[in-house]
Amino acid sequence: MSATGPVKAITVPDIMARKGTVPLVCLTAYTTPVAALADAHCDIALVGDSVGMVLHGLPSTLEVTMEMMVLHGKAVRRGLKKALMVVDMPFGSYEEGPAQAFRNAARLMSETGCAAVKLEGGETMRETISFLTTRGIPVMGHVGLTPQAVNAFGGYRVQGRGEAAERIRRDALAVAEAGAFSVVLEKLTESLARKITSELAVPTIGIGASPACDGQILVIDDMLGMFTDFKPKFVKRYADLGRAADEAISAYAKDVRERAFPDENHVFMDVQGSGGAETA
After folding, report:
1. Who's near 50: CB < 8 A, 6+ residues apart?
2. N or C, which end of the chain is more exposed by having fewer CB within 10 Å?
3. Is residue 4 very low, low, confident or very high in pLDDT (cuts 50, 70, 90)?
4. What is the pTM of this model?
5. Is 69 helix (H, G, I), strand (E, B) or coil?
6. What pLDDT, on a 0 to 100 scale, did the predictor assign at position 148?
7. Confidence (pLDDT) at 3
8. CB count, 10 Å around CB of 67?
9. What pLDDT, in 10s, does the model give residues 207-249?
10. Which residues contact 125 (CB under 8 A, 6 or more apart)?
């Protein structure tokens, strides 16, 4: 046992208690090594259905399956010690009704070891969220721009302008009242996100919303500069790992073609007088 003792895992009540206090730090994660890196700094690790676009090259999140979420969920679980793990419910896994949602949410929790699930939608999801939460499945809500409904929105547009603001406000209130322990607000006008945050009793987590939210989340490949197909306005790049990786791969290719790699430091030579070959 270490001198500092075991790491205490963050729980759903811990997240709820952060309302109006120190902002929650949240990132997506899809693999074990990235989860381990995020775990040291984050309160919440979201296994997002954005994995379909970021890692699988899909045009949207609509083709993501339960099997994909289970696979990546298991990988992330192995990399976490502290952060609360939340897994996205993919498109088509919960919209049919509460019973379908419960079956798939229970599968995600039992097979990945996650602490909660996330689903998109507002007032139309009230019954489903209530059904899940009263049966022991913590739910993170998601309103505003909901990527699984991108076809209905006509693209990834800012939400909450004009008459739509009141509808989204009602969506957020409905999700919270149904039992969600937190609500993601995506791509909303700043004033609307601020208003919703002030009215909800549970934490809001912004992505393209407002600094007034109780926390912030970004797709980790966006903020590290690994995913470069497009860059939303709300993304701040904290590194340019995509360019660094490109330069490293270019240097490797040049060394191979010029026979500069491998050199004597990267091959195994006969060990003089040992009668055997070097193995390490």
Report:
1. 28, 61, 88, 147, 219
2. C
3. low
4. 0.92
5. helix
6. 84
7. 56
8. 9
9. 999 999 999 999 999 999 998 777 788 999 999 999 999 999 9
10. 94, 119, 141, 174, 175, 178
CA-CA distance, 148 to 256, in Å (whole number)? 44
Least confident of 71-75, 172-176, 179-183, 225-229: 225-229
Backbone phi and psi for residue 44, each to the nearest 5 degrees, phi listed first: -130, 135
- Pull the structure tokens for residue 43: 């309160």
Q: Given the residues 186, 199, 247, 278, select the one marked as catalytic.
A: 186
CB neighbours (10 Å) of residue 187?
22
Strands (E), 110-257: 116-118, 139-144, 182-186, 204-207, 215-218
Helix H or strand E segment including 84: strand 84-88
Ramachandran class of 271: left when φ > 0, alpha when ψ lies in -120 to 50, beta otherwise: beta
| Region class of 139: left (phi > 0), else alpha (psi between -120 and 50), else beta | beta
3-state secondary structure of 222: helix
Burial (0-12, 13-18, 19+ Cβ within 10 Å), 274 = exposed
Give yes or no: 186 in active site: yes
Question: How many Å apart are CA 264 and CA 41, to the nearest integer?
Answer: 40
The mean pLDDT of 113-126, rounded to a whole number, is 98
Amino acid at 99: A
Find tokens 């969506």 and name the residue. 171
Does residue 153 register a pLDDT over 70? no
